[in-house]
Amino acid sequence: MFYILLSVAIICFSLFVGIYGFYFLLVLKTSKKKEYLRLIEKALEKEPAAQELPNVSILVFAYNEEEVISRKLRNIAALDYPREKLEVILVDDCSTDKTAEIAQRMFNELNLAGKIVKNDERMGVNASCNRGVVESKGDLILPTDADVTVNNDALIKGVKILKHLKNLGGITGKMVPVSNDVTAAVLIEKSYRNFFDEMAMAESAIYSTFPGNGASTILKKSAFLPMPLTGSTDGNISLTTIRRGLKFLYIPNILFYEPISLKFNEQRRQKVRRAARLIKATLANKDMLFKGNYKSFGKVIFPLRFAMMVVSPLLFFIGVMAILFATVFASVTLALLLLFLFSFLTYLGVKISVHKLNVFSTFVIHQFYLLIGLFFSQKRIVVWRPPERSEMTSKDYGTNNPAHNG
Question: C-alpha distances in angstroms, 349 versus 33, 197, 312, 362?
Fold first, then answer.
């Protein structure tokens, strides 16, 4: 039995390392990143005439957001973009607080064009997005969350990119995590975000990325298709865009700020929810795997990301359990020692700011988030419980300072 379990562990970890190894060599190490950044800078240097700027519809999805909706609408009003070319569609997903009342007051105070659309029952973000697009009049749509803010120049930068880069359907920006404390949850999130940005940058340089950051997406309305009620909103948007033969790119020059969980329990709940929704959207689009008509995305990027999200967590869990039980057959004391060392290193990595330990802990913890998310992805969940505001950062985070990350 010892040798059988050991063989299972070796096979699982060999496949696991192979998946990430291929991703590192074929994607992360691409030589196209410098040229990609050069194209972005070149596009941003161009100054479009006011009459050339498209109309933009900003879609704000809200459920019980009375604490943050004023800040959100003030942030929109401060955008460096002609006010006459902006409209705001706030989709209130049957809030039970004063979100709609406060929003209407802010619409009037800030002289924002647009309207508040109220769902008759809780429908979830995907259905709210579908409805918001139907209600919108803009050439571009910017779906966003109520607790997210952006730099004043974010929209004009996005418009320049969409105008000057070829065959482009949508873009996403860089999420800057905001916190007013350094906790285990904060260290995990910041380490994860650094890796996510590297992935999105490399994938965009090669062809296209997914899922993007849903709270900061700018999309050509012509590229949008109504999405299913379940699955990741940003995952559905990006994959639909790529399906239509258009690119979906990550632009590191466009910054947006999002409060992150201060407590581990709240972070776990958010991460499992996001993992489940993203995996569901990924599985729903599995027919894109290895399809040449999606260029490098279909042949390389999507297959490897599919394996990283769906296959790798299973391999990791089975491999860890196989090693643990194999060690038990050799020595119970040794098994307990290995379990203690593994747990201690993971714990240490979320308690102290040491890069390699942070990366190790973040990697291990996210494998379990993905594993749990894989289970929940098989369930049809349209509406999830919203985050607890008391466990999120409480500081004001609307800023134009790119260095501001909490």
Answer: 30, 20, 21, 8
Angle in degrees, CA 357, 363, 364, rounded to 5: 90
From CA 259, how far away is CA 175, in angstroms rounded?
Answer: 10
Q: Tens digits of per-residue pLDDT, 216-269?
A: 799 999 999 999 998 999 999 999 999 999 999 999 999 999 988 888 788 888
- Assigned token pair, 188: 């995990």
Q: How far apart are CA 236 and CA 174, in angstroms?
A: 19
Q: How far, in Å, CA of 3 to CA of 27, rounded?
A: 35
Contacts of residue 329, defined as CB under 8 A and 6 or more positions apart, other chains included, come to: 1, 2, 5
Strands 217-220 and 247-259: unpaired
How many CA atoms lie less than 13 Å away from 128 in the CB half-sphere?
30
Calpha distance 210→251 (Å, rounded): 12
Q: What are phi and psi of 148, to 5 degrees?
A: -105, 140
H helices present in 253-331, as ranges: 264-284, 295-296, 302-306, 312-330
CA atoms within 13 Å, Cβ hemisphere of 390: 1
Classify residue 71 by its DSSP letter. Answer: H
Please, is 342 exposed, middle or buried when counting C-beta atoms within 10 Å of its C-beta (0-12, 13-18, 19+)?
A: middle
Cβ–Cβ under 8 Å, residues 147 and 72: yes
pTM: 0.89
